[in-house]
Specification:
The complex is a heterotrimer of chains A (about 220), B (about 220) and C (about 240).
Chain A: H1 2-21, H2 23-43, H3 47-72, H4 82-87, H5 94-123, H6 131-156, H7 162-173, H8 175-189, H9 198-222
Helix pairs in contact in A: 1-5, 2-3, 2-5, 3-5, 3-6, 3-8, 5-6, 5-9, 6-7, 6-8, 6-9, 8-9
Chain B: H1 2-25, H2 39-66, H3 69-101, H4 109-130, H5 134-164, H6 181-216
Chain C: E1 5-16, E2 19-30, E3 34-38, H1 45-52, E4 60-65, E5 68-69, H2 74-77, E6 81-84, H3 96-106, H4 113-122, H5 138-152, E7 156-160, H6 168-183, E8 187-192, H7 198-201, E9 204-209, E10 212-218, H8 224-237
Parallel strand pairs in C: 3-8, 3-9, 6-7, 7-8
Antiparallel strand pairs in C: 1-2, 1-4, 4-5, 9-10
Helix pairs in contact in C: 3-4, 3-5, 4-5
Chain lengths: ~220, ~220, ~240
């Protein structure tokens, strides 16, 4: 099916460019390390305080990385006017959205795994019991961020004050995802089973579904010109 | 134009009646005193802003389907008036809250939701302001308007659960109106008056926007 | 050879903010015909090209391609177009081959490895097919752009300075390919502000000045000196 081929072509292209240039990946890794150091300086000494704020701090790290990654996702299209090429591509443009989404998700999940690993090592956090639950919550939360983030990134790509406007538009809309992921992560890290935070997970899934469907339906409008 | 003028007169009368009733006729609240009368302005402002954002969402959908610039103008104007009303609503809420509960702000469910609403639609106006091409601005803002509208129930649920689960419900409930008619009637009249005010502002703003669009062509 | 006009611009006006770039432009390009659009820098040639390419909307007037209004139904127009604009539409970190493959897939073309290689050979990039485009010169990137367009065999070509940056061999190749496309019924609009090889391929010359088409004439009726003179005269009329 041509739609799937085009979406895959876009995802492959983004990941290939990223793999070779490593621009975004380097920025994200460096940024995560920086965050780690800052958190250590401000919270590292007091284990209890750290445990209390860990879910928020972790997702703060994820969100800031997401802003960085998603904000740049259409930057590569601005060189050599590739954006025009995307505009003039025939057929359903939501295939481009899907490809971008897949590429962004892959990148964000890799960075999140890295950040999580760093947290475990440097803050001596025991993720053992929470891991199965986290493997559900983190991907769904990331999908929520990436779904709207990719749409808004396309909308702000060619606009003045892009770096300011993108987070200003994205963050208020993402409050449900942020609340759900932080509260669910908090519960899981306290040792609660996934069932105990099921309502947050359901909210996440509902939010993700809404965001992806709306984005797929409206991406054509954004890439009209 | 005649319609707009009539609307303006109705609004003025409605506001006059409503505010007189709220600040004069309605009974003085026992514990809070006269400051509670701000409720007659605060609650209608917030509710009228909900109307504004609802209209914005519907106008956005209509624009995307029919590409009628009039729908875009209505969405634009609704966004402006809505943001102003929410801002004033938050401000009057703070003024009410400080002497009553001792604090300008608290992160209870309702206030948090309204604050998020305010920032979301402020972003809507910002997006409008940064795009020069009017057709692209209309399209992008319509998409944003629809995403924001669909997000509102998610925001309300998540914030409500955040505040009420594993936590006692907030004590900061606006007023203590038990539905007695002496309080309800001024409230309803003011609500109607503020919705009329919203409609009047939107009507005038849409006319101005249309004139600007015609001048540019 | 002369078919119905595929590209029609009628009274096209474009205003950016308060600045009118195009006043009232009317131009036809028929199937099997190539038109060279001349004009000084800033005359609005690229703007007109972008309007026809559905990248900009006209403030007033209409432009249609194969009967479809470019402003109202761009999605019907876009599959018919081959566009070489100012930017080359290349990803620096992909190879020439990968770039071509990406655009072919995105365009819904069924181009296998042989088609891609043939296209690259035509523009003389077959030896650097697996080199990253970052290492290419501007001319090479432009040639890759042309390979992309040729692969699709479009019905309407909108070209911005197509011969710029090409060596003799590549110019000859492009000339032949454009003539072949013309013979197949395609409509060509080439924007240029120099007097190069475009004139060889062009059947008509049009001069854009003062926001309007100041001159629209068959190429054969004018000598090179005439063109140059008229060009300068009309360019001075630009406000």
């Amino acid at each position: 099916m041509s739609y799937a081929r085009r979406a895959l072509a876009v995802a492959w292209k983004d990941l290939a460019v990223e793999r070779r240039s490593k621009e975004t990946l380097n920025a994200l890794v460096f940024f995560s390390l920086l965050l780690l150091f800052v958190f250590q300086f401000t919270l590292g000494g007091d284990r209890e305080r750290l445990a209390a704020v860990l879910p928020g701090v972790l997702w703060l790290g994820f969100v800031l990385s997401a802003l960085l990654a998603l904000g740049r996702t259409f930057l590569v299209e601005r060189e050599h006017d590739c954006w025009e090429g995307l505009l003039l591509a025939p057929g359903d443009k939501s295939a481009i959205y899907l490809g971008k989404l897949v590429g962004n998700l892959a990148l964000m999940l890799v960075v999140e795994a890295l950040v999580l690993g760093l947290f475990v090592v440097f803050f001596d956090v025991d993720l053992g019991r929470a891991m199965p639950g986290l493997l559900v919550v983190v991907p769904f939360g990331t999908l929520g961020l990436a779904a709207v983030g990719t749409l808004f990134a396309a909308m702000t790509a060619n606009v003045r004050a892009r770096e300011l406007l993108f987070p200003v538009l994205l963050l208020p809309v993402q409050v449900p995802v942020l609340l759900a992921t932080v509260k669910a992560t908090e519960g899981l890290l306290l040792g609660e089973p996934l069932g105990a935070v099921a309502h947050w997970v359901k909210l996440l899934v509902a939010a993700d579904a809404i965001y992806v469907v709306v984005s797929l339906l409206t991406f054509d409008v954004v890439l009209e010109g | 134009m005649a319609v707009v003028k009539t609307l303006g007169w109705l609004t003025a009368i409605g506001l006059l009646v409503g505010l007189v009733m709220g600040f004069g006729v309605a009974p003085r609240e026992v514990t809070q005193g006269n400051v509670q009368r701000i409720m007659y302005v605060h609650v209608p402002l917030i509710l009228a802003s909900y109307v504004a954002f609802g209209v914005l969402a519907v106008a956005s959908v209509i624009y995307l389907i029919r590409r009628d610039p009039a729908a875009d103008r209505v969405a634009h104007a609704s966004g402006e008036v809505g943001v102003i009303f929410v801002g004033l609503g938050i401000a009057t809420g703070s003024i009410w809250g400080k002497p009553t509960w001792g604090t300008w702000w608290t992160w209870d469910a309702r206030l948090t939701s309204v604050a998020i609403l305010f920032v979301m639609y402020l972003g809507y106006l910002l997006l409008r302001g940064t795009i020069d091409d009017p057709e692209r601005a209309a399209r992008y803002c319509a998409v944003l308007g629809i995403v924001a509208a669909l997000d509102i129930p998610l925001v309300h649920f998540s914030v409500y659960w955040w505040r009420t689960l594993h936590q006692p419900p907030s004590l900061m409930k606006p007023g203590g109106f038990t539905g007695s008619s002496s309080i309800l009637w001024p409230l309803l009249i003011n609500l109607l008056a503020f919705i009329l005010l919203y409609a009047y502002f939107v009507a005038r703003r849409v006319r101005l926007l249309r004139a600007e669009a015609e001048a540019a062509a | 050879m002369s078919f119905e006009p595929i590209v029609r611009a009628v009274g096209v006006r474009k205003v950016f903010g308060l600045v009118p770039v195009l006043d009232s432009v009317s131009l036809d390009v028929r199937g099997g015909e190539a038109v060279a659009l001349l004009g000084a820098n800033g005359a609005g040639k690229t703007t007109l090209l972008k309007i026809l390419a559905t990248l900009l909307r006209p403030t007033r007037g209409t432009a249609t391609i194969a009967g479809h209004d470019v402003a109202r139904v761009p999605e019907k127009v876009r599959p018919l177009l081959g566009v070489v604009a100012h930017g080359a539409w290349v990803y620096d970190d992909l190879t020439a081959h990968e770039n071509l493959k990406f655009w072919a897939t995105l365009g819904g073309l069924h181009a296998d490895a042989d088609d891609l290689t043939a296209a690259l050979t035509g523009v003389g990039l077959d030896r650097v097919a697996d080199a990253r485009v970052r290492t290419f010169s501007a001319g090479m990137k432009r040639r890759l752009s042309l390979a992309r367009v040729m692969l699709a065999r479009p019905r309407v070509l909108l070209l911005d300075e197509p011969f710029a940056g090409l060596d003799q061999r590549a110019k000859k190749w492009l000339e032949e390919r454009l003539e072949a496309l013309k013979a197949g019924g395609a409509a060509l609009l080439m924007v240029t502000h120099s007097f190069g090889r475009e004139l060889g391929v062009a059947d008509r010359l049009a001069v854009l000045a003062g926001g309007r088409i100041a001159l629209d004439t068959p190429r054969g009726s004018l000598g090179a000196d005439d063109i140059q003179r008229l060009y300068v005269v009309h360019a001075e009329e630009t406000p």
